[in-house]
Structures are given as C-alpha cells and as structure tokens.
Amino acid sequence: MSRKFFVGGNWKMNGDKKSLGELIQTLNSAKLDANVEVVCGSPAIYLDFVRSKMDAKIGVAAQNCYKVAKGAFTGEISPAMIKDVGVNWVILGHSERRHVFGESDELIGQKTAHALENGLCVIACIGEKLDEREAGITEKVVFAQTKVIADNVKDWSKVVLAYEPVWAIGTGKTASPQQAQEVHDKLREWMKTNVSEAVANSVRIIYGGSVTGSTCKELASQKDVDGFLVGGASLKAEFVEIINAKV
Fold it and tell me: Cα dist. 7→99, 107, 159 in Å?
C-alpha cells in the first residue's frame, strides 16, 4: 500500500508577520511535489493570519491544544477554536511539550482523543532522550509513548506518527538513515501486533530531528520513513528542497 509522503514544518516560537508572510509567499510560489502532503505548524497567535495567506494546497497546524472545548484554562486553546480559524491539524506530544513543559503521556493521550473527536488531524510525536538511547531502552520508551496515543485513536487515517529522537532535535545531530529506518520498522511491527496489520501498513511514520536539505534525500529513501517533521529548516527556503526530497 502506498503511503502519501508527508512533510510537516514546525515553526515553534519563531517568526513575525513580516518574516512568516515572506515564507508563505515562497511556499505559495514554489513548485512543490504534488505527491506530498505539506502542513505548517504556526504559533497560535498567527494561525488565522497563516491560514488566510497560505495556498489551500498547504495545510496548517496548531503546535498544541488542550483536552477540553472551553473553560477556565488561561493561556490554552481548544480544537474548536483551531477549527474555527480554518485550521485542521495539531501537533501533540512534541518533546519540548514533554520535557520543557512537563506534559505527561496521559495528558498527551487525552489531548489526542479530544482533538480527534473534534475533527482535527493529529501529528503525534514520540521519541527517546540521549540517556535512554544509550541505556538501550529506545524501543521501550517509544512503544510506551505510542501505546498511550494508540489507546486514544479510533481513526488512524487522521493521525501521522512522528518519531523524533530528542537528542537529534535542534542539535545538528541527525539519526542516521539506518537508525531512523530501524526504529520506524520496529514501530510498524508494534502497530501490526497491537493495533492491526491494515493500520500498520497505512499509517504514516515520519522522522524529525535536524532534517535539512542535505540529509533529507537519503532519509526519504528508507522504506519505512514516510516523511519528515522539520524544525529550523522549515523557516528557510530550504524547506522546499525537503518537501521535494523524493523528486
């Protein structure tokens, strides 16, 4: 079964109307591979602006949301609000949410369930820290994170799983294509055993962690790497090269 290549850009807490406006113009006018689904994760305050300026063929994502529709949750945004500005995606469980802001697996699971119930598609992030990889428990960590997400998903066509080894995010260290493929393959096997063979074959598992124009082609050639979640490079013109990694 062919899985449509997926490239997400996570802008994190970067950009302003001027620089993001220029980036949007670059993306709107670029020749992008039509066989790739592209989604850009904008800071919450710019979601409406980005969606209104971005070409309809490019998706937009919030970088986080809360687990209920409304209420006394100062500083949070809900899936209902995200949908209301025409945005259809949300990134959940990013390692910065987990390790900088202390979000638990359980909370990420609850957010995933609520986002999906309210019609958002989810880029669900998992990944091990350096000490966990060195201790040889990468699989244990990513399987546990994946289980909590899987327990909260009914329709896998609305979910993209992003494997991001924490030690490779923003560090300039990239997992080798072989390291990425090995974890993606094991994740697919886990899905086969714990969800279903059909879902294992159809779910897109994308790689994140210092993906650049120079590393993307070899990563994209791996059998179980179905795309990327790109950080810093998604704010540069180089993002176009990454989107077109399969061309």
Answer: 24, 25, 13
At 185-223, the pLDDT tens digits run: 999 999 999 999 999 999 999 999 989 999 999 999 999
Instruction: Give the residue numbers marked as catalytic.
Output: 94, 164
* Burial state string for 29-56 with b = 16 or more CB within 10 A and e = fewer than 16: ebebeeebbbbbbbbbebbebbbebbee
pTM: 0.98
Q: For residue 134, is pLDDT > 80?
A: yes
- At residue 1 the predicted structure's pLDDT band, cuts being 50, 70 and 90, is low
Place of tokens 């302003």: 16
Spatial separation of the C-alpha atoms in residues 216 and 141, rounded to whole Å:
25
Report how far residue 180's alpha carbon sits from residue 40's, in angstroms, rounded to the nearest whole number. Answer: 22
Q: What number of residues does the chain have? A: 247
What is the Cα 81 distance to its own chain's centre?
20
Mean of the pLDDT values across residues 93-99? 97
If you average pLDDT over residues 54-68, what whole number do you get?
A: 98
Per the CB < 8 A criterion, the answer to whether 5 and 228 are in contact is: no
Using the 8-state DSSP alphabet, how is residue 118 labeled?
Answer: T
The C-alpha atoms of residue 173 and residue 165 are separated, in whole angstroms, by 10
Q: 109 near 154, Cβ under 8 Å? A: no
Nearest-angstrom CA–CA distance, 125 and 108: 9
